[in-house]
Design brief:
Layout (H helix, E strand, L loop, with lengths): L2 E3 L4 E3 L8 H11 L18 E7 L7 E3 L2 E3 L1 H13 L1 E7 L2 H10 L4 E5 L3 H4 L2 E3 L4 E3 L1 E6 L19 E4 L6 H7 L2 H4 L2 E4 L2 H9 L5 E5 H9 L6 E6 L3 E8 H6 L3 H12 L3 H8 L5
Parallel strand pairs: 3-6, 3-7, 11-12, 11-13
Antiparallel strand pairs: 1-2, 4-5, 7-15, 8-15, 9-15, 10-13, 10-14
Length: 278
């Protein structure tokens, strides 16, 4: 094993998997160089890393497709997080509703940008929060209904599109639990379909992440949209399938410990800086 000596200490070289300059620097910035030295660096046998299947969908700027695979804020943060936890990620593209089904059956280990709910806790648990989401009520530009609260929609003949399988933060969920508002909701498969229906005037509003919906709208030449009502930012988590937790004892503590170490690191903050406004 190659070593470099000075008058005070001997520093082993990183293992072969980390000798890529980019990966080594990212790891060192996030965790410190000692955390980036695996067993191979100390002469011991390299252990295979735990492999976890992670769901993703087209929700820019958080998650989106490129010729080189998925990219976006969530993808980059999850990459740093996984590196800190010593796990390998396998990306699986699926709609949100399909991801929930796969997580409940054990076909998917992790889901990003998830909000806890009692229904989901039956088949999953949640890590500590890793970022905020910015929910809002979106409409076509020029809509003429002034809104200050969701209750303003009560008694209105409007349709509100929502992504199928979504869970709202407590305050928003409590508002939509009212029958007068619940009957307005129209579940759809994804932001692209809800936006298409809004522009076709089959919907009057969309409730969802306002930043992502705005990015979707800016990617084509359709009618512009506005945020008619903004909700308070709410934390999102990584959903972990209970079947995965049963298969990998200690995984939740491992993930939370890794998040505590990497969140706020230079590498993490550099990723956030590449996605201003999120």
């Amino acid at each position: 094993m190659a070593q470099r000596s000075d008058s005070s200490m001997t520093i082993p070289l990183p293992p072969p998997a980390l000798r890529s300059r980019r990966v080594w620097v990212q790891c060192a910035l996030a965790l410190g160089w000692t955390a980036c030295l695996g067993p191979a660096a100390w002469g011991g046998p390299a252990k295979p890393r735990l492999k976890l299947r992670v769901g993703w969908l087209n929700s820019p700027p958080y998650q989106f497709d490129t010729p080189h695979g998925p990219a976006g804020l969530d993808i980059e943060l999850m990459g740093l997080w996984a590196q800190a936890a010593g796990v390998q990620l396998e990306w699986v593209q699926a709609t949100w509703a399909r991801q929930l089904l796969e997580a409940s059956s054990g076909g998917l280990d992790l889901m990003m940008s998830a909000t806890p709910s009692e229904e989901r806790r039956v088949y999953a648990d949640f890590t500590a929060p890793y970022r905020d989401e910015h929910l809002g009520l979106v409409a076509l530009a020029g809509h003429n209904l002034a809104l200050t609260h969701l209750s303003d929609l009560e008694g209105q003949s409007v349709k509100v599109g929502v992504m199928r399988g979504v869970a709202f933060p407590p305050a928003v969920a409590q508002a939509f639990a009212k029958p007068a508002l619940q009957r307005l909701l129209v579940p759809m498969r994804g932001h692209d379909l809800t936006l298409e229906a809004l522009r076709a005037r089959r919907l009057h509003y969309i409730v969802g992440d306002a930043i992502s919906l705005s990015h979707h709208a800016e990617r084509d030449s359709g009618a512009p949209i506005v945020v008619a009502l903004r909700f308070a930012p709410a934390p999102v988590h990584v959903l972990v399938s209970r079947q995965t937790l049963a298969r990998v004892p200690g995984l939740m503590a491992r993930l939370n410990d890794a998040l505590a170490r990497v969140r706020g690191s230079a590498a993490w903050l550099q990723v956030l800086a590449r996605y201003p406004g999120t």
